[in-house]
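Re: beginner question about structure tokens

> Can someone show what the tokenized structure looks like for a real chain? I only ever see the sequence side.

Sure, here's an example I had lying around. Input first:
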Amino acid sequence: MSILLAIFLGLVILVLAGTAIYHKNTKVAIIATGAVGLFASVLYLLLAAPDVALTEASIGSGLSTIIFFYVLNKIRQTND
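And the corresponding structure tokens:
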């Protein structure tokens, strides 16, 4: 059962990564990038690596997403 869940999570990660790369809307791309980090952390947890999962959840989906939105906000304020 866990191998099917791991395959499913891998496919979801690939779809979200494609969304992050090819989507025209920057906010959607940032959210997709954060979701990739979140699903990767769940996958790492399934692979019995809780330390990597915790790091990926905090940095990959949390901090990176916040930094991306902060920079996007600063860029938009500069252009106005």
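Each token stands for a local structural state, so reading them left to right follows the chain. Residues 15 and 52 are 22 Å apart (CA to CA).
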